[in-house]
């Protein structure tokens, strides 16, 4: 005999069939969820800063990570642009080219 109450309870605990569902029916597309483990002092500091800014610790941490990713992408772009040779579009580095004529006087 099937226990309808147990079946209903287990169905409520089962994951959504759609991987793009938050469980509330709202979709979040291709977002990835990460867990962040912090010590108690850092966690308290994050909560305090979030409260001062009127946001949640999760939203503040997410914003900081996204800002850092943007900064890293910009720094990488600047680095590539720094090595770009404007004359012919090739990459240049700070390599030194030695004179192949070893006997030549400077």
Automatic annotation (TrEMBL):
Residues 1-26, 76-106 are annotated as: Disordered. Residues 78-87 have a biased composition (Basic and acidic residues). Residues 89-106 have a biased composition (Polar residues). This is Uncharacterized protein. It comes from Amycolatopsis taiwanensis.
């Amino acid at each position: 005999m099937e226990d309808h109450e147990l079946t209903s309870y287990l169905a409520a605990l089962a994951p959504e069939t759609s991987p793009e569902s938050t469980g509330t029916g709202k979709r979040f597309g291709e977002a990835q969820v990460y867990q962040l483990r912090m010590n108690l002092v850092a966690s308290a500091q994050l909560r305090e800063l979030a409260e001062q800014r009127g946001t949640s610790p999760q939203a503040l941490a997410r914003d900081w990570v996204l800002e850092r990713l943007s900064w890293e992408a910009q720094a990488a772009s600047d680095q590539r642009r720094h090595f770009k040779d404007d004359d012919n579009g090739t990459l240049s580095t700070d390599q030194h080219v030695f004179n192949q004529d070893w006997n030549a006087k400077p």
